[in-house]
Amino acid sequence: MKLSELAALTNSAIAQGDFDLEIESAAGLDIARNGQITFLANPKYTPQIKETRASAIFLNENVELEREDIAVLRVRDPYLAYTRALRVFNPQPEISASIHRTAVIDETAKISENVEISANVVIGANCEIGENVKIYPNATVYENVKIGANCVIHSGVSVRENCEIGANCIVHNNTTIGSDGFGYAKTEEKAWLKIPQTGRVVLEDDVEIGANSAIDCASVGETRIKRGAKIDNLVQIGHSCTIDEDALICSQTGLAGSSVIGKRVILAGQVGIAGHLKIGDDAVITAKSATSHDVENGKILSGIPAFDNREWLRSTAAYRRLGDMAKAIRELTRKIKELEQK
């Protein structure tokens, strides 16, 4: 692909180099070679520009390039442009419309013509599978499930009864959509009595769920993951939760039941959210933090229990000096006693 074509596809402008330069793929600064385009987004990698063998690079306006042997594409967000380049050079393969002979599909299911259903897939009664859906081997779709157009369901996935998946969704290996919520009532004999979980899970359009995650259905009503939300591997979403648009939930995070996560919220790895909480739009909770209180819009929180990130940074800096502080206090205490004895 010519550099000029790539520039148009990535919303960038050629600032240096031959418009007809051929670019065949994209790679990181340290591994890029001749014929590839790379990028610089994090300033700490700036020294690698001197060594990279890439033919072209995405740079923002604030970065100067001292080399003349590399084509330069100027763009506001080099990482976004690089992502678009990767998508150009690595398009999703088209599905091969077919149903494997070992697939088990209930006769009441409605299967669109242009779908690919692989070996040992099971699709239950009254399901609806949209156009251009690809279901990999050993996936199980329970009864009354709807899967929208252009979805990819990877091997080992289970989509439980009555759940709905919108268009353009991806569900990765061994994830369960619609598993029973964790609900029990204590009997007179102090034993746990299971509460029937009669609700469902809804994934809206453009949602992606990582591998080995579990999204629980509601006891009544629904658990809803809204448009564009992205959920990483090994994430637990409790019953009746709502994840709003474009939220990002990283690995090993756990949400207790009835949590409400706002638009564009970022929950970093191993975050814990107590039940019945509201995390406001654009909030960020950093890795290994947990909260048992509502979070206001735009807040950045850290720690257990989580509090303002800037205060947390100051607190952790002080924590590292506690040993010296304790020693100083002991010395001051000794001197005060000596003065009192005089």
Task: Please tag this protein with its features.
single chain, 4 helices, alpha/beta, ten-stranded parallel sheet, Udp-n-acetylmuramoylalanyl-d-glutamate--2,6- Diaminopimelate Ligase, Chain: A, domain 1, 3 domains, UDP N-Acetylglucosamine Acyltransferase, domain 1, flat, 342 residues, 15% helix, twelve-stranded mixed sheet
Describe the model.
- A hairpin with a 5-residue loop joins strand 20 (184-186) and strand 21.
- The longest helix has 20 residues, at 322-341.
- The protein has a 12-stranded mixed sheet with strand order 6-9-12-15-18-23-26-29-32-35-37-38, with helices on one face.
- The relative contact order is 0.06.
- The model has no long low-confidence stretch (mean pLDDT 95).
- It has 3 domains: 3-89, MurE/MurF, N-terminal domain (Udp-n-acetylmuramoylalanyl-d-glutamate--2,6- Diaminopimelate Ligase, Chain: A, domain 1, 3-Layer(aba) Sandwich); 98-311, Hexapeptide repeat proteins (UDP N-Acetylglucosamine Acyltransferase, domain 1, 3 Solenoid), CATH 2.160.10.10; 317-341.
- By secondary structure, the protein is an alpha/beta fold.
- The protein is built from 4 helices and 38 strands.
